Amino acid sequence: MRKSKAKILVVEDEKSMREILTMLLEEEGYGVVAAADGKEGVGWLQKDIFDIIITDIKMPGADGFEILAKSQELSPETAVIMITAFGTLEAALEAMKLGAYDYIHKPFKIDEIRLIVRNTLDTKRLRTEVSLLRETVKSTYEVENIIGKSPKMQELMRLIPKVARTVSNVLITGESGTGKELVAVALHNLSPGSDKNFVAINCASFPEGLLESEIFGHMKGAFTGAVQNKLGLFEVADEGTLFLDEIAEMPASLQSKLLRAIETSTFRRVGGTADIKVNVRIIAATNKDLKKECDSGRFREDLFFRLDVIPLHMPPLRERKEDIPLLVEHFLRKYSEKSIQISGSAMSLLVNCPWKGNVRELENIIERVLIFTDTELITATDLPSELALTSEKPAGLPAVEQGGIDVEDVLRKLERNYLLEALTLAGGKKTEAAKLLNLSFRSLRHKLSKHGIK
Question: What is the CATH number of the domain that holds 108?
Fold first, then answer.
């Protein structure tokens, strides 16, 4: 079983040089594999993935150019450093044009080797982080933080820093569009491993075979289309966080492999034979009831318990209407460089919509309105007409049905709705809201407290 650390392949036919490089790199804490010639080096490339290859240019069996070409074929992300001797400098420069990262000139200094290897690893790490950052920027949500003043959101935000400090797995539940990935990102950013990678994958976006390859990686030839070795997201997220979105959509065959990876902190690439050890925190998310999925046999119960160590729930937008004005203002700033205002009637309409698509739907509506509206004041007529048709604003008291009615519950909901609407129209100013409802300030404050409205 191999520890997870930078892996370096040394290909050098001169025994003393090979032993010196191996000893030096192992002292630095790297995992080193040494090959006595080019042919043996190519063999190792077909069996494993390396962070760096240090190879001599002139060797029997296969020279450094063949090692470079094979590395680019199998593992394009591997950095190749060429060893040059007298008379081979031009060849080393040619190799760099073909994609080699750097070269070392014999006789080399020990500090020079250390520095080149460290710089190479730092560059690879930065490239990986930039690539991940680009993927994050493409995400539907680019909200800098979690927005909400409702009691449910305040409680969630109170829990996040506590949970972030642990290493336990987390299961985030909630409807689609509520912002579960925002919670996952916040947990990572506040965790001790925040300087490591946050890697996200949507389990519903890949067919079964490709999903396994994305998560665990594969070796060349493992399946049709596997034309080169590939690192899995488990390795990329080592010491950091792996976010598995829509975990309920993971195929049963892959659930067992994920369970083993979580239980043993090891896995094997598709087509590989070596156990790879990692230290990864798993955050999973789902819009389904995983307990019901377990009862129906669609999800492994033992995997559910491994993931559900710390459960967090993202409430739907209809249960935190106090947050809608905050979110609207945020999206107005996000999608417009101008100072855009929104009328009270428009805000009231937005507050009273059911938002089946949750925050994502609200964001899309605001973005669309700003595209088609040139004025600096958004009114109710600027909003899509379908919003008025779905508004939950009560037109009056419901009729008494044959089966009876809970009048106290109806009146409680009606009162709470008008309190929220008045606060929205008043811009959050309680004095103004009290005037709109013909209440004293003291009476308004009492009612807000009774309904848990902050």
Answer: 3.40.50.2300
